[in-house]
Amino acid sequence: MSADESRGRVSRWLTSVSGIATAVAGIMTSAATILGFFVAHQYTQIHDYRQQVQHQTQQIQKLQAQPTPTVTVSSPAADSSVTGGGAPSSAQEYLSNQQPTVNNGNVDDEGTTIDGQTYPNSVVFACSGQSEGQPTQAWDVGGLSTFTAVVGVPDDSDDVTGYVGTLTFTSQDGKQLGKTVTVSLGHAAHVSLNISGVTQLDVTCNATDPSNDGSPVGNLQAAFGNARVLS
To answer: What are the structural domain ranges in the chain?
Structure first.
């Protein structure tokens, strides 16, 4: 092989190596460009995710900082409407904590059960009618505006099935307050009265036996479940 042929082969080989190197460099450049684009895209997504997380965190913090709303639910008052009782508030003034101003019915304030519902703050008294022009019971209610109670007959009453108690609520001057209330064993009524301007709440209870021509009976008691007066 002549020297010219050897130099030609070397020249061609170098040219090939140079071409390969150029191709490899081009591939690496392309790969770097693609990788750079991918990394940049991932970084952008991460950045967006961070912003979303920060925004959601701020919203959660704002919600946690807001006070929890308080919802107050109250039942409408009704004159002599039948209900199943209910739990009273400790802020209300119970008749069981007061001394009656008239006590012809020999009041008992130890609590009672009416229609299967227990009322710890209650008054029970005999349906003895009027005595010498006085009501059966009376309480001082001056300065107060509302009287409410579940009115009925104690569940532990003996031999009173079918007997009826008729209760009339009046002011100190004899003015009737609300409607006359009729109760019997197992049949109570929820009474709510406007007592604004009343100084003494008078209650008269008469007991009768409808099966015996409405003749009076002497062993029926009336119960005021959780009886309370409100200002």
So the answer is: 1-71, 93-230
The reported pTM is: 0.61
Strands 146-152 and 137-140 turn out to be unpaired
Residue 10 has pLDDT above 70, yes or no: no
- pLDDT for the residue numbered 85: 40
In our burial notation (b when 16+ CB lie closer than 10 A, e otherwise), range 8-23 reads: eeeeeeeeeeeeeeee
Query: Per-residue DSSP letters for 1-48?
Result: --HHHHHHHHHHHHHHHHHHHHHHHHHHHHHHHHHHHHHHHHHHHHHH
Does domain 93-230 fall under CATH 2.60.120.1060? My reply is: yes
Of 75-89, 188-202, 212-226, where does mean pLDDT reach its minimum?
Answer: 75-89
